[in-house]
Amino acid sequence: MTTALALPSTEEEIWRYSRINELDMSKFANGKLTTTVEGGEGVQLTGTAATALVGAGMHVQPDVFAQLNTDTPDVIALHIGKNKVHTQTVVITHSVDKTGIVAYPRLVIDAAENSEIVVVERFTSADNVHSLVIPVVEVHAAQSARVTYLAINELAKNTWQIGHQVAVGERDSNVRLFTVALGGDYARMRAEVRLVGQGASAQQTALYFADGTQMHDFRTLQSHEAPRTHSDLLFKGAVKDTSKSVYTGLIKITENGTKTEAFQTNRTLTLSRGAWAESVPNLEIETNDVKCSHASTVGPIDDDQRFYLESRGVPPEIAERLVVFGFFDEVIDRLPQSEFLAGIRDKVIAKLGGTK
Amino acid sequence: MSTLEIRDLQVSVGGTQILNGITLTINSGEVHAVMGPNGAGKSTLSAAIMGKPGYEITGGSVTLDGQDVLAMPTWQRAVAGLHLIMQYPTEVPGVKLSEVLSEALSARHATLPNLNKTINEEAARISFDSELVNRAVNVDFSGGEKKRNETLQLAVLKPKIAILDELDSGLDIDALRDCAKRVEDATNETGMGALVITHYSRLFEELKPDFVHILAKGRIVKSGGPELADELERDGYAAYAEAAK
Asked: Which residues contact residue A201 at a Cβ distance below 8 angstroms, ignoring those fewer than 6 apart?
């Protein structure tokens, strides 16, 4: 296929501040990731059953990258039957081993009525890999289903990611989407939750930490399309050296979303003078009788907090570490228990301590 | 025996001269009260001694046992033996008191074999709810809890010289008594010296000053014994504010 792709540009609001203008798709040839799945026995589908599940949570293609993924997806499909609790955590590990490839991993989690599942998806690569990953995650939570999904981006410094997370929650379901983003060169995640059934709830939580010349880019949507739905989003990150982060988020409550509660908080610490972060929260509310709040801050470590700790005799680099971990504390508290998060403190410490 | 020696200290904030030459010598075991009206420069004195950013030293010296305090970064001043109890203790989200004390002690190369036990004992001594030790420092603490927390840190870190910036402000009578008594005990038990900055003399019920200095318009305008505090209580600061002009 040689048809020139119409890529988006930063003129479009959803791509504003992004590095999309740097992307040259001709540099990448379609390729595969090395992927392992553990704990999928009994829920992982194969063959046509797997491909048939594509689209379970994403009915429209939000942009050209999602469309590309849909055209040639490498599918991992999980279906949890009615009333089943899948006690084992499903762990999917992707490794980008080849340079110069673009890969389209597609994860579909289809949770039937009153079922429960926990899925961890990790992305890794080596330093010399100049490749692009375009992952799509679809979650469909049927009535009263409970889905927990944790994405861990530990890509190396030359790998790009342009990803989508889309979840649909039906009546009384609960979806929790977690993201821990430490890696990548330009690493973008568009994370959308649609609550379409009465009483559906969702939590979206992210911890990100960029250093060197990295950029972490998040676009979120909390769409309330039914009464008494509840969403709570907490994204906290740090940028160091000359790295950047972008957060733009929309809470949308349609006419049907009466008695909805929706909360959105984004906070980013700028740890170096050269680091840059943008945070743009938005509300679009078409009904009354809702409870809604959003908060956003971008700024350096509070001087008073630093002075307070130093005045107790805590050296500056340790004071900074304490304040940064204190800042991340409420996010780390929300993250699910996972062996893959055990090393996260050390990774953040390494990022804090290192200079690039 | 330790000595904090402040000589002709001059400090400006944002280009405005606040302290116009303060001279004070505080020895181990001594309690020096610095009293003055609002705007006299009391808080500036404590901030400058501890090296708070934004306070520019324009003249004079501060030494602790001969060491040049003003040449040290803030954390080294604390390690050298100074401790500041802040008027408005800062909230530090997500950072526990036990973590702060553990790091503060390790910077002093003084690891307590059982830090938690010490913290619990000291907390009980000043009626500080030891549950708060494992919560974020000062976050959602009441005024009394904040000052008890400050006092607890002082008790665990055992400084040579403590600087108390309006310990009494915002305190109910019980918290004031607990905190003031603990500072007084430290002057007797470990020979701590104290520079006690305050507007009112109610603190002195439990914490007995040996010397009282009146600060007005950035100068010490009168020094004396405890009787000077009684005089201020009776007559107010008006006479001294005039004298400093």
From this structure: A169, A173, A174, A175, A195, A229, A230, A231
